[in-house]
Amino acid sequence: xxxxxxxxxxxxxxxxxxxxxxxxxxxxxxxxxxxxxxxxxxxxxxxxxxxxxxxxxxxxxxxxxxxxxxxxxxxxxxxxxxxxxxxxxxxxxxxxxxxxxxxxxxxxxxxxxxxxxxxxxxxxxxxxxxxxxxxxxxxxxxxxxxxxxxxxxxxxxxxxxxxxxxxxxxxxxxxxxxxxxxxxxxxxxxxxxxxxxxxxxxxxxxxxxxxxxxxxxxxxx
Length: 221
Known about the structure:
There is one protein chain. The protein is mainly alpha-helical and 221 residues long. It has nine helices and no strands. Helix 1 (2-17) packs across helix 6 (90-119), helix 3 runs parallel beside helix 7 (127-151) and helix 7 (127-151) packs antiparallel against helix 8. The chain is elongated and about 55 Å long.
């Protein structure tokens, strides 16, 4: 656990030195969401219906801007080889990087999500499910993104390949995340959708670090 904390602390320090990257992710999230009303019109009822899907799709696309950098810098300067030879298992290293990615990318997106809800006239009943679903869903996106970044490490056009790998895997998160908000707005129970999101997160916690470790090990061989 001390090695895990050290790796997380190192990733956070590096992120603070490049704080502009996190700012770019949040700015993309907000600006991309702001563009939709210009193309579809300012009708409040239409924007309210679109809000759940827009928030989740834009959050995913914004998070994907930083996936490729998860392992790339360490791979290029040899740090990743040192981590692989160290006492901490590669799965623990991958989990630490996923946590650091969520803290520097997922949490800012989580905090910016209510602003998008206000812009889209999201009903008051939708804000609590929005925040809970984002708390459950954004860590899953970070974990899946870690697997994609590891599997495309060292590949040509890794960014394109990363998108093709990650997008199909996060579709269930988008479906149930937006579904929870829609259910709350329509007066239906949101617990089933949130429970599914929690189950997906637990499965990702159990499987994604090992899959990412296998991808890193393959890239280093």
